[in-house]
Amino acid sequence: MPIDLSRRQFGVGLAAAASMVAAPAIAGSGAKIVVIGGGAGGATVAGSLKVQSPGLDVTLIEPHQQYTSCFFSNAYIGGLYDFAKLSHRYTGISATGVRLVHDRAQSVDASKKLVRLQSGKMLPYDRLVVAPGIDFKWDAIEGYSQAAAETMPHAWRGGDQSFTLRQRLEKMDDGGTVVIAVPKMPYRCPPGPYERACVIANYLRQAKPKSKLVILDAKMTFSKQAAFQDAFAHYYKDIIELNLSNDIDDFTVTRVDPADGEIRTKAGLTMKAALANIIPPQTAGAIARDAGLADPDWCPVDPDSFASTRAPDVYVLGDSAIANEMPKSAFSAHSQGLGVATRIIDELEMKRPDPGRYRNTCWSIVAPDDAIKIGADYAAGELPGKIRGLVPSNAFISKPGESAEERKAVYDEAFAWYPTLIEQIFKTGAKAGSPAKTGFAR
Ligand SMILES: Cc1cc2nc3c(=O)[nH]c(=O)nc-3n(C[C@H](O)[C@H](O)[C@H](O)COP(=O)(O)OP(=O)(O)OC[C@H]3O[C@@H](n4cnc5c(N)ncnc54)[C@H](O)[C@@H]3O)c2cc1C
Q1: Is the minimum distance from the CB of 205 to ligand 1 under 6 angstroms?
Q2: CA-CA distance, 213 to 143, in Å (whole number)?
Q3: pTM of the shown model
Q4: What CATH superfamily classification does 142-278 receive?
Q5: Atom 23, ligand 1: which residue's CA is nearest?
Q6: Minimum-distance ligand 1 atom for the alpha carbon of 77
Q7: Residues 213-242: pLDDT tens digits?
Q8: Where in the chain are the domains?
Q9: For residue 362, what are the contacts with CB-CB under 8 A and spacing of at least 6?
């Protein structure tokens, strides 16, 4: 089925930006742009800047030689996608002329406009983009730590952790209980824990039919709840037990013991997990907090431009930023990245920038050939309580009881979306030719 590219902003990635190569040289040509973090947000900004405006001096700082995505990792964990297909090299981005520095940003001196790297090198900037994703509040759950995550994986960052969770699932005895601990909002990928419950339950149903899956949720409600609960009842009635917090019982996980699999909630419920998937509360990536860009956990930004409200000439985007109702997703991070690249170029060209317009869609697999989705467009405006923030419009959401054909179409969209987004972020930067601009970013 052909995908509606314009609807999902696929048409405005690096390939779209490639059409701008012929644009006149800009006033800020040669300006130094440093981007921290080569993930969905940071890699998008770096590639888009360089392709739109080849005269810019763009440096992307990323410690890893390749990026292994967390997005779409649930498909792998459920046995529906290859692990190898989740990893991507930076060669496409380098080919645009972006300077890749495989190092870790250690500190930022916003007054001197300098980034210090772990290697000791200093990088000066005219504009800084900070997109380091998330970090975890390791002290939020007693007994949980980076070491404990080897036994009780969070799998909330891509790579080894996703692999560990799948391995442990395969090794688990039939009849064991898988427990998924879900934190309060905000966290990366709001529907992710429930999609994970579905794909694991689907695996259990086939491979370990005596097993169960228990969700211990710190929240009272969750994203796409009606459609997810419909799927739980339809496919996994005897497998998934959903425990949402309520006024009486708080199912926030407060203590774990990796040695024996014991898990305790705030309300005092204890249970033994054969496999515990503990998703801890999260914060902006450490470098964003250390640079003084967070307040206290996430980074406030101007909703129009994603410019930090705490440091001049610095932008924060992706999961680290406070984007109000706009979910922390790869789709959002990519959309924000395109917007920030355009904004920086406009600023350097001393042009009046267009208001920022962004978009998100999150697909969730609930069973083979069945997926659901949620999405909206976002622009700066007034939120309830007279707060200025990103206001959604044109929102849509899957509903319970949709036809099998409709759901299969959404499932196919999800599987088409992943390689398309990856192509846009990591691979097509150097290629010419482009679809038309959609108005969301040049
Ligand atoms: C299980 C799961 C499923 C998901 N599914 C989806 C989905 O279906 N759709 C969707 O849109 N999103 C999904 N997401 C969410 C998505 O993965 C994130 O929202 C997205 O990756 C955020 O992009 P980012 O650029 O902010 O962070 P990241 O993609 O995490 O990139 C951050 C990068 O910064 C680097 N970095 C960190 N600190 C430093 C430093 N000090 N110096 C230099 N570099 C640094 C990291 O190495 C990393 O490469 C899912 C997430 C999970 C956990």
Answers
A1: no
A2: 22
A3: 0.93
A4: FAD/NAD(P)-binding domain (3.50.50.60)
A5: 40
A6: 1
A7: 999 999 999 999 999 999 999 999 999 999
A8: 6-135+282-427, 142-278
A9: 189, 190, 191, 223, 327, 329, 331, 373, 374, 375
